[in-house]
Each structure stands twice: as C-alpha cells, then as structure tokens.
Amino acid sequence: MRLLIAALALIASACSPMTAPDATAPTQSPAEACAARGGQLMRVGRLQIERCVVPFSDAGKLCRDGDDCLGDCRAREAGPNEGNITGVCAPNDLPFGCNTPIENGRAQPTLCVD
Fold first, then answer.
1. Which of 52, 23, 26 is nearest to 39 (CA)?
2. CA distance 49 to 33
3. Cys-Cys with 112: which of 33, 54, 66, 98 at CB 3.0–4.6 Å?
4. Torsion sign (Cα): 44, 46, 50, 53
5. Helix (H, G, I), strand (E, B), or coil: what is residue 68?
6. pLDDT: is 27 or 54 the higher one?
7. 47-83, pLDDT tens digit by residue?
8. CA 89/CA 62 separation, integer angstroms
9. 3-20 as b/e, with b when 16 or more CB fall inside 10 Å?
C-alpha cells in the first residue's frame, strides 16, 4: 500500500503544470543582438546567408601566430610562403575567401571557403 501511495505521489508531481516563459521579457532582434556584440548583419558566402560579422580591434596588426590575434593570423597574400614570415591579424570573424593561416611564424596550407 505504501508503495502504491509513493508511486501515485511521484506521478502526480511529474504531471504538475510547467510555468510559461515570461511573455513580457524583452527580446532582441537578430540585428540588435549583433549590434550588441559590435557587429553588423550581412549576407555573406556563396549562399548569401545572413550572419553577424564582428570586426576585430587588432585587425591588421603584425603577428606570427593565431595566439597573437583575436581572430586568425593570416599571410598578407594567399598562396605559397616559405620560411619564417609575419602575417596580419584578420579583420573580422568571416571565414570566407582564400586565406593562408600563420602558425609559429610558418605559413600553413591555404584554405578557400565559399
């Protein structure tokens, strides 16, 4: 009998109504949320998908590794680069285009993203 009462109490508590989200809570539009991050909504890439593009404050700074930048450290020009080289910090968080990342002062394979 005790087991039956405990089971019924457990079932009753599992069926209690959930509280609805607060409908009066302010919500941000995607553009407002992007602007709050310092970005701008843009249509980007081959599919022209809307994305929040956030610029980096260290854009164009000389670097020798991605750890030197808020984003990636990239070669000034995509393509073969030999020996120790210095790159520049990426301008924003967009992955599109052909970029040659720099790691530990060495160019890595060029990546092209549409």
1. 52
2. 17
3. 98
4. negative
5. helix
6. 54
7. 999 999 999 999 999 999 999 999 999 998 877 777 8
8. 6
9. eeeeeeeeeeeeeeeeee
Instruction: Give the tokens for residue 1.
Output: 């009998």
Prediction pTM value: 0.70
How far apart, in whole angstroms, are the C-alpha atoms of residue 49 and residue 43? 5
Where is pLDDT greater, at 69 or 28?
69
* Token duo for residue 55: 């610029």
What is the DSSP track for 5-33?
HHHHHHHHHHTSPPPPP-TTS----HHHH
The two three-digit tokens of residue 85, written as one number: 């080289």
Residue with tokens 């992955």: 95
Q: What percent of the chain has pLDDT over 90?
A: 67
Residue with tokens 């089971």: 7
